[in-house]
Structure formats: structure tokens, C-alpha cells
């Protein structure tokens, strides 16, 4: 049996199945990237719910796995060379799992790097900007009398939706079903954030989501996938 006792996080969240990949997460737009990917590729894994509302990511056990104190993170007991590997940052985890399983990341060098660039687009633009809009539109920031911060993130979120719309519309050719050719980690990285923008953040009207029909169709296709539906609820909040 695999021994994960060298990882302090297992003292707080014990591994009942240490031979399985350990997922430490919460069903947020960042968290579900990894649970969706794991459901898509079919790897055996054990999810642990990390309650960010109770500041569990700032305890010493979690920080031993991710010093940045964010979810998600994983421990793969069967990492490179058969040795356990701890990994944080959702984009890095998606690339790792794609390479480990040979799924959702093309082996063709050009397409591979194009896919990674769209993952980075989500990581560096869509996630941070949509998250800021959520704060100023739905959460504490909505009480601010000065609406300039909110309007800044509305405009930037709308611009980013436009980038995605142009990509999917593929002017001069057939509209794309997915961001890069076949369904890939670029789609997995982005689906939860667009869903959250118009759902949990209730920002669909303020960003004019109706103006992006190709994004809406892409989102519908993605959310119809059974693995996506399962991954959106993992780890269970109950």
C-alpha cells in the first residue's frame, strides 16, 4: 500500500485510499477544473473538501501542500518515476493529468501549445477578471457607492467574452464546437468560469451575455457532458 504519511496534509485529511490520487478542492470555478478532468479521464481519485469559508487553506497542513493557500491541489501517489507527486495551480494540474493519461491535450506540438495558450488565457484573464466582477457585482463590493471598479470589470469581462466569441465563431470558416479542435483542457479550464459568471455571479445581463451566441452554445455543449455534470459537484458540499 502506498504510504503518504510524508505529506502533512494527510494528517488533517487522512487518505482512506492512499493508492488513489488525492484531490483537495471545493466546487468553485477553479476547483471544478480538476474534478471535471478527473471524471473525464477516469482516473481513480479520492476527493477531500477544503472549506475556504472556514479558512482551511491557511492552516499549516494545507499550506504544506500549497504555500499559496488556494484550491485545488493534488497528491498523485503514482507520479513520475512511480514516486508520489504533490502539485498545485489548476492549470498545471490540468496539463499534468493530460500528459499522464494522454487525453485532452494533442500530441501535435503546434496544437499542444495552442491549447496551452488558451489555458493560460483562462488563468491570466478570464478567471481573475470574472472573479473581480463577481466581487463588485454580487458580493461585498456591490455596496460601494463608486461604481467605477464594477464598470471596469464589466467592460473587461465583456471584452474577454468577445475574444472567446471570435475564436468560436471562426469567421471565414465553420464555427468551432470547442476552443481548439476537439474538446480539450482549454474547454475544461474555461467552462466553470463562464457558467459561474452568468449563474452564481448573476452577471449575464450586465455583461450582455446574449450578444455572444457562440459562447452560449459552447457552454451548453460543455455542460451537457456527463463528466462535466459530475465534476461540477465534486467534492460534495454535504
| Low-confidence region ranges | none
Residue share in helices?
40-55%
- What overall form do the CA principal axes indicate? globular
Q: How would you name the oligomeric state of the polypeptide chains in this document?
A: single chain
Which strand order spans the largest sheet, edge to edge or round the barrel? 2-1-3-4
- C-alpha end-to-end distance: 29 Å
- The count of DSSP E runs of length 2 or more, i.e. the number of strands, is 4
The helix-strand sequence is HEHEHEEHHHHHH
Mean pLDDT value: 97
Global Rg: 18 Å
State which percent range the strand residues make up.
Answer: 5-15%
Q: Count of helical segments?
A: 9
Output the structural class: alpha+beta
Largest sheet: 4 strands, mixed
Task: Give a structural overview.
Helices cover 47% and strands 8% of the residues. It has 238 residues and is α+β, with helices and mostly antiparallel strands. Strands 2-1-3-4 form a 4-stranded mixed beta sheet, covered by helices on one side. α6 crosses α8. The longest helix has 29 residues, at 109-137. 36% of the residues are buried. The mean pLDDT is 97. This is Glutathione S-transferase N-terminal domain-containing protein. Pfam families: GST_C, GST_N. InterPro entries: Glutathione-S-Trfase_C-like, Glutathione_S-Trfase, Glutathione_S-Trfase_N, GST_C. Belongs to the GST superfamily. It comes from Brevundimonas nasdae.
In short:
With 238 residues, this protein is of the alpha+beta class. The chain has nine helices and four strands. Strands 2-1-3-4 form a four-stranded mixed sheet, with helices on one face.
Amino acid at each position: 500500500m502506498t504510504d503518504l504519511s510524508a505529506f502533512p496534509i494527510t494528517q488533517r485529511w487522512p487518505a482512506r485510499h492512499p493508492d488513489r490520487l488525492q484531490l483537495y478542492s471545493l466546487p468553485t470555478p477553479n476547483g471544478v477544473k480538476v474534478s471535471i478532468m478527473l471524471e473525464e479521464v477516469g482516473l481513480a481519485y479520492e476527493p477531500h473538501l477544503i472549506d475556504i469559508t472556514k479558512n482551511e487553506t491557511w492552516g499549516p497542513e494545507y499550506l504544506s501542500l500549497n504555500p499559496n493557500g488556494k484550491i485545488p491541489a493534488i497528491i498523485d501517489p503514482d507520479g513520475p518515476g512511480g514516486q508520489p507527486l504533490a502539485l498545485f495551480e489548476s492549470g498545471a494540474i490540468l496539463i499534468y493529468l493530460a500528459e499522464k493519461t494522454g487525453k485532452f491535450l494533442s500530441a501535435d506540438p503546434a496544437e499542444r501549445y495552442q491549447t496551452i495558450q488558451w489555458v493560460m488565457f483562462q488563468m491570466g484573464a478570464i478567471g481573475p477578471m470574472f472573479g473581480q466582477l463577481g466581487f463588485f457585482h454580487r458580493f461585498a463590493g456591490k455596496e460601494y457607492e463608486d461604481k467605477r471598479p464594477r464598470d471596469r470589470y464589466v467592460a473587461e469581462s465583456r471584452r474577454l467574452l468577445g475574444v472567446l466569441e471570435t475564436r468560436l465563431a471562426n469567421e471565414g470558416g465553420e464555427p468551432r464546437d470547442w476552443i481548439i479542435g476537439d474538446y480539450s483542457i482549454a474547454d475544461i479550464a474555461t467552462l466553470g468560469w463562464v457558467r459561474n459568471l452568468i449563474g452564481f455571479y448573476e452577471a449575464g445581463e450586465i455583461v450582455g451575455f446574449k450578444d455572444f451566441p457562440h459562447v452560449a452554445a459552447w457552454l451548453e455543449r460543455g455542460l451537457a457532458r456527463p463528466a462535466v455534470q459530475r465534476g461540477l459537484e465534486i467534492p460534495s458540499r454535504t
